[in-house]
Design goal:
There is one protein chain. This protein is of the alpha/beta class. It is built from 11 helices and 12 strands. The protein has an 8-stranded mixed sheet with strand order 1-2-12-11-8-5-4-3. Helix 11 links the parallel strand 11 and strand 12.
Length: about 350
């Protein structure tokens, strides 16, 4: 059984959906969506204005939705756009929004006041919060307060409240059927899972095979969906790619924690096109193309059901600190598509 405890924690993804997060849905697959994350101008100084980004999402074939954080410039250009959005609560705001009055005010200003002409899909309350951090104790109370405020605003049937986790929470992931949360993560996740089950909300998860290659010595073909055959045999289930293995390990962990009925929405997944030996345009293009095709059919453990998945990210971001952080974009800042990708 393999542990993820040795994997280096990626510091740069955590705030993307929380502060300036945009998810443009590229294609509806049945009841599911394929989308892409947008980090806004906070991490780049050469991106097009928000109005052009919204036009990009609206004008390219099959781009039906987008998801943003609720800052005024975004909400203004989203009016009557028919674009769905995900809004996020920053990790450093969780303690304040655990207070019901503060949560009600936040929902009124950022959601209710705009709900007549802006489509909201999810509220992501915290992103990749470390279960051992002082912030962890505020995740569930903030989720509960915001959920109540959403319900009180009459939007409970429209908007689901969740939180985004990464697979560092897994103490065991190999084979996938043995997937289990670490003890610290289990104590953190159990009440959150109960909340999600009770309210019919999915768990948001950031799934990155790339980081398993980078920090856990997994093979590149296994991560790129190009392995020629079975890599992991798990009982009667065959695993030919790492994405499925990580997804099903997380499903197994949920089943062991009374969360077997939960759906997982992949809130981030991507591969950088520069900054290292495996971080190439060829590998990144291969990953995105194969991921787009693969998520239409589910995983070995949950076959036949499309996986709502959001590609990271819309644009390269030139102000990121580490080199690889700057190269996750599907598009260059001039809105030119970086890869040969079909979204249909």
């Amino acid at each position: 059984m393999a542990s993820l405890s040795a994997m280096k924690k990626k510091p740069f993804m955590a705030a993307i959906l929380l502060f300036l997060g945009l998810l443009c849905s590229l294609e509806h697959i049945g009841a599911q969506s394929l989308g892409v994350c947008y980090g806004g101008n906070g991490n780049a100084n050469n991106l097009p204005p928000e109005s052009e980004v919204v036009s990009l999402c609206k004008n390219i074939r099959h781009w039906k939705d987008a998801h943003y954080s609720p800052y005024p410039e975004i909400l203004q250009v989203l009016k009557d756009s028919n674009i769905e959005i995900m809004v996020g609560v920053p990790n450093d705001s969780l303690q304040a929004l655990a207070d019901q009055s503060a949560a009600a005010d936040w929902v009124q200003r950022n959601i209710k006041d705009h709900s007549s002409n802006v489509k909201f899909r999810y509220i992501n309350v915290g992103n990749e919060v470390n279960p051992t951090s002082t912030t962890a104790q505020f995740v569930l109370p903030a989720m509960q307060s915001i959920h109540k405020a959403i319900a009180d605003a009459g939007l409970g049937n429209q908007i689901k409240v969740s939180t985004a986790v990464d697979t560092n929470l897994l103490g065991v992931f190999d084979p996938p059927s043995a997937g289990a949360f670490s003890e610290n993560a289990r104590q953190f996740m159990e009440p959150i899972i109960g909340f999600l089950v009770s309210n019919g909300a999915p768990l948001l998860a950031n799934i990155y095979p790339y980081f398993r290659v980078k920090y856990n010595n997994q093979s590149v073909p296994y991560a790129l969906f190009t392995a020629p055959g079975t890599v992991v045999q798990d009982g009667h289930l065959d695993y030919q790619n790492l994405f499925d293995a990580l997804m099903d390990a997380l499903y197994s962990a949920l089943e062991k924690t009374n969360g077997g009925s939960l759906a997982i929405v992949v809130s981030e997944s991507g591969w950088p096109s520069g900054g290292g030996a495996v971080e190439t345009v060829e590998n990144a293009g291969t990953y995105y193309r194969n991921l787009i095709n693969h998520v239409k059919g589910g995983t070995p453990k949950r076959p036949g059901n499309a996986i709502e998945t959001y590609l990271f990210a819309l644009f390269d971001e030139n102000l990121k600190t580490e080199e690889i952080e700057r190269h996750f974009g599907l598009f260059y800042p001039n809105k030119q598509l970086k890869y040969e990708i079909s979204f249909s």
